[in-house]
Amino acid sequence: IERLFDESYVRVLSREVDGQGFFAAFYERFVAASPEVAEKFRQTDMARQQAMLKKGFYHLLAFYASSHADYYLDQVAISHSRAHLDIRPGLYDLWLDALVETARRFDDRFDDDVELAWRLVMTPGIVYMRFHYDR
Ligand code: HEM
Questions:
Q1: In terms of Cα–Cα distance, which of 5, 18, 20 is closest to 100?
Q2: E-strand spans in 2-130?
């Protein structure tokens, strides 16, 4: 699973589609996914958000690899909780779907096995983020 994900991740990062890189395309798709998401990002500078996404991503992957949250992921989970950004748990489904659909568009070897690998690799970090919503 890790190998399927890693190889797909390298492919999606190595190209542009319609003049856009992977993270820009993902962010655009995610924001378009629901008015609630768009509302959350109303004040956000897109370039800054993409840089943060990339970094957040890296820590999600590290979490999958080690099953151990680093300090940074802890801070991100706290920032997304009810008391702060108030990202309700259901929004992570939209996040993951937008990510998978973007990967499908960027990876010319995307198939069911690759999709499952993306979902499995992201899931522990998402569970971790959701768990801290009320804590
Ligand atoms: C900010 C990562 C899911 C909305 C951030 C930041 C990171 C991050 C690293 C910047 C640092 C911080 O504020 O703590 C992630 C990861 C996610 C995720 C790894 C998935 C596992 C979501 C979801 C939403 C969301 C589902 C729903 C709309 C936001 C908003 C900000 C933010 C509104 C603040 C933007 C600003 O500074 O204006 N996220 N996020 N995130 N995230 Fe997320």
A1: 5
A2: none
CA of 77 to the centre of ligand 1 (A): 9
- Ligand 1, CB within 6 Å, residue ranges: 37, 40-41, 43-44, 49, 52, 55-56, 60, 75-76, 79-80, 85, 87, 91-92, 95, 125-126, 129
Token code pair at residue 49: 């958000």
ipTM for the assembly? 0.96
Give CA–CA dist 66/80, Å, rounded. 22
Residue 97: which of 70, 121, 115 has the closest Cα? Answer: 115
CA of 56 to the centre of ligand 1 (A): 8
| pTM score | 0.94
The per-residue pLDDT for range 13-31, each reduced to its tens digit, is 999 999 999 999 999 999 9
pLDDT tens-place string over residues 69-127: 788 888 999 999 999 999 999 999 999 999 999 999 999 999 999 999 999 999 999 99
Angle at which helices 91-106 and 22-33 cross, to 10°: 140
